[in-house]
Amino acid sequence: MTATRIDGKALAAEILAESAVRVSRLRAAGTIPGLAVVLVGEDPASKVYVKGKTAACEKAGLNSWLHTMPADTPQERLIAFVKQLNSDPAVHGILVQLPLPKGLDARAVIEAIDPAKDADGFNYVNVGALVVGEEAFYPCTPWGVMKMLEHEGVKVEGAHAVVIGRSTIVGKPMAMLLLNAGATVTVCHSKTQDLPGITRQGDILVAAVGRPRMVTADMVKPGAVVIDVGINRLPDGKLCGDVDTEGVSPVASRITPVPGGVGPMTIAMLVANTVTAAERRAGIGAPGSRIT
Ligand code: NAD
Q1: Which ligand 1 atom is nearest residue 262's CA?
Q2: Which residues have a Cβ under 8 Å from the Cβ of 173 and sit 6 or more positions away?
Q3: Domain-by-domain residue ranges, the chain?
Q4: Cβ(93) – ligand 1 distance below 6 Å
Q5: Could you point out which of 23, 118, 206, 292 has its C-alpha 20 to 30 Å from the C-alpha of 232?
């Protein structure tokens, strides 16, 4: 058996194309969806990420603004700026690129974002809605993984999903989305005992750790769907995920590559969330649904 590669790049392009259609509808109704991205400091990886995000917005016909601020920006100034974006009617989504430089309280900044413009889905209001199984802005990376599983026809309901990583950005919301979709979920982390013994039980295995190729073939159940969220830069400058893709491919049924897997989906879901925010403000779009 050799695992089928799940093409995140192609699916992300489809989602961006769908977003472009939704943007045309909004434009015809007099609304141009807009995403404001705030970048504080000079982190090189963050600069690359925000460039990708604003470029995707432009591709789908949204407005996007990149606001850069120096690393020594005081907390109050950053929060005041976020509040200014909250009251700007041209802005439908707000993203403050994380991590923030030392000395800035990321949680306080995220809580300053209007929950209706929280395109990243990190605000307590959206996190709470996710936990109770209501429609919300879900964090873009795990939400993109759910879209991949759906597109691939992977049966989540009743499956045992194992998530490695418990971060607020990926691991925890990933576990919650899988749980809401009817999976039996196990969350592993740095303190987990016998990690391979647990990961081998996963029909769906999601790795979100940040350790190059740590998931090896002996940790994977034969036929499992393996989702590699990790993005790690190797000493030679190349990117790799948290999964040993070559080693795991003969064991898994499907696998996401790095690059070209989850990464492009994260950006596509950010655009989709911003369009949804604009639709809600314009009174266009599907009503909320409840997941039990
Ligand atoms: P994080 O550092 O916040 O969390 C890492 C998690 O891994 C922690 O919960 C920790 O308990 C767990 N962990 C650490 N060592 C472990 C071990 N030996 N065994 C089991 N668990 C262990 O990282 P994050 O923000 O969740 O990101 C994880 C990875 O995903 C990183 O490589 C990051 O770059 C990548 N990422 C990718 C995207 C994307 O769009 N593809 C988005 C966000 C993050």
Answers
A1: 41
A2: 121, 127, 130, 138, 139, 142, 143
A3: 28-116, 140-262
A4: no
A5: 118
Report how far Cα 75 is from the mean position of its chain's Cα atoms.
25
Which one from 97, 118, 203, 242 is the annotated catalytic residue? Answer: 97
**CB of 126 closer than 6 A to ligand 1?**
no
pLDDT, tens only, 193-234: 999 999 999 999 999 999 999 999 999 999 999 999 999 999
Topology given in CATH for the domain delimited by 140-262: Rossmann fold (3.40.50)
Question: Which amino acid residue places its CA nearest to atom 19 of ligand 1?
Answer: 190
Q: Is the CB of 33 under 6 A from ligand 1?
A: no
> Does residue 221 carry a catalytic annotation?
no
Gap between the Cα atoms of 269 and 64, Å rounded:
15
Task: Determine whether 97 is an active site residue.
Answer: yes
Write out the two tokens for 16: 């961006």
Would 28-116 and 140-262 be classified into the same CATH topology?
A: yes
Q: Which CATH number fits domain 28-116: 3.30.30.10, 3.40.50.2300, 3.40.50.10860, 3.90.1140.10?
A: 3.40.50.10860
If we measure between CA atoms, which residue out of 11, 12, 15, 8 comes closest to residue 255? 8
Instruction: Give per-residue pLDDT as tens, 172-192.
Output: 999 999 999 999 999 999 999
- Residue of the nearest CA to atom 39 in ligand 1? 263
Whether 120 is a known active-site residue: answer yes
| Rounded Cα distance, 260 and 12, in Å | 9
